[in-house]
Design goal:
about 150 residues, mainly alpha, 2 domains
Length: about 150
Amino acid sequence: MSHANLMNNYFNPNSVYTEEDFRRRFRMRRHVFEHLLCDVQQVNPYFQQKRDIAGRPGFSPYQKVTVALRMMAYGSPAASMNETHGMSESTCLDTLEQFYDTIVQVYKDEYLREPNQEDLNRLLRKTEDPGFAGMIGSLDCMHLDWKTCPT
């Protein structure tokens, strides 16, 4: 039932929520979610739907990825996922761990690498415009003078 609700709300052609609602709730566009889902399913069999010992279908890939993303994006506790997605705390934590590991495995070379010199130069140029010159290496901006700092 949780899977059917999720599909009816967000993924079916005549879904309850619009593309704009999807982007606000998931913090990404639907096609990005679908691409991510496809990638994690291909690499990790955990994200493929299986049947339990009684022959009932387990959690769908959509449910698993949704739970992992919600926990990451909103800092939702695993225990709260039972109410909305019908997934136990331990299953949510397993799903989150599998998701993290799979994302690193799939996207590490392209997105999770250290910046090269070209990347650093581009980032430094971007930070100069709003007045944050030399910000690379000091993400907390402690080297900047802030006269009206509240602390």
